[in-house]
Amino acid sequence: MRILNIAIQGVPGSFHHQVALAQFGENTEILSFNTFEPVAKSVATGEADYAVMAIENSIAGAIFPNYELLDRYELTIRDEVYLPIAHQLMALPGQKIEEIKEVRSHPMALLQCKTFFAEHPEIELKDDIDTASVAKQIASENWKGIGAIASKIAAEIYGLEILAKDIQTIKNNFTRFIILQKQKEQQDFTPNKASIKVTLKNEKGILAKLLTLMSDKGLDLSKIQSVPVIQKPWEYSFFIDTVFEKHEVFKQTMQEIQDKFGEVKIFGEYLSRK
């Protein structure tokens, strides 16, 4: 069996890495990138078979630039994964929390641990590219006085000691990841969720009419995000996640929206995991 190439943002021990292993197993080649853009590009060019990409967090909200990458690179959503997120403060073995002067991590992780660090104003917080990559660097560079926010797995991989457990402000903290591919594959299931983009005509009340139509057709909106159309002032596109019971009704509704309201682009039809 051919080994799959899976693109992720981050290094081994990152949350993206955990999702990749859970979805595709150990018999994979993990392609690690520092930022999300090359992750998307690797799938578009065929370098990677699939990608794992965080799209929103239950505390910090949507990761909006990733919607734009999904759109620009013409990628398809194959599936979604909800991962419970637990953040650990870690440092070199033998260090105490009183000795930590600086903590580095992904800005989203720092945001999710705001309350904990409000009780430790002496610690300076610094944004970095990834949670696990900071843990890796602390271990390889033998950095004293510097801590990382990362997962338990990252602490195990890089031999760090956890100084404070589960420091995220809200304990019921989930990140939604999407599994991306270049082209839609033949499905052996009937989807009940879809991610779409609708570019609406510049008409008074058109968004309200669109939402009423979707509601009348039994399509529940689990996410809606607006973005201005740069080339057309005062026109907007809307990224929408919708859940439905009847796939045929969804398809008919998409055609009706296309005919009456504006351009429709379907990023993926898949199973809701929530």
Summarize the model shown:
The protein is of the alpha/beta class and 274 residues long. Helix content is 30%, strand content 34%.
Written overview of the protein:
By secondary structure, this protein is of the alpha/beta class. It folds into 3 domains: about 5-85 and about 175-180, 3-Layer(aba) Sandwich (D-Maltodextrin-Binding Protein, domain 2); about 90-165, Periplasmic binding protein-like II (D-Maltodextrin-Binding Protein, domain 2, 3-Layer(aba) Sandwich); about 195-270, 2-Layer Sandwich (Alpha-Beta Plaits), CATH 3.30.70.260. The protein has helices at about 15-25, 35-45, 65-70, 105-110, 115-120, 130-140, 150-160, 205-215, 245-260; strands spanning about 5-10, 30-35, 50-55, 60, 75-85, 90, 100-105, 125, 145-150, 160-165, 175-180, 195-200, 220-230, 235-245, 260-270. The strands form 3 sheets. Strands 1, 2, 3, 4, 5 and 11 form a 6-stranded mixed β-sheet that branches. Strands 8-7-9-6-10 form a 5-stranded mixed β-sheet. Helix 6 packs parallel to helix 7. The longest helix is centred in the C-terminal third of the chain and has 14 residues, at about 245-260.
Question: Which class of secondary structure composition applies to the elements?
Answer: alpha/beta
| pLDDT < 50 stretches | none
- How are helices and strands ordered from N to C? EHEHEEHEEEHHEHEHEEEHEEHE
What is the CATH C-level name of the largest domain? Answer: Alpha Beta
The count of helical stretches stands at: 9
At CATH level 2, the architecture of the largest domain is 3-Layer(aba) Sandwich
Share of β-strand residues: 25-35%
Mean pLDDT: 94
Number of DSSP-assigned strands: 15
The main pleated sheet reads as:
6 strands, mixed
Indicate the percent of residues in helices: 25-40%
> How many domain regions?
3
How much is the radius of gyration in Å?
21 Å
* CATH fold topology of the largest domain: D-Maltodextrin-Binding Protein, domain 2
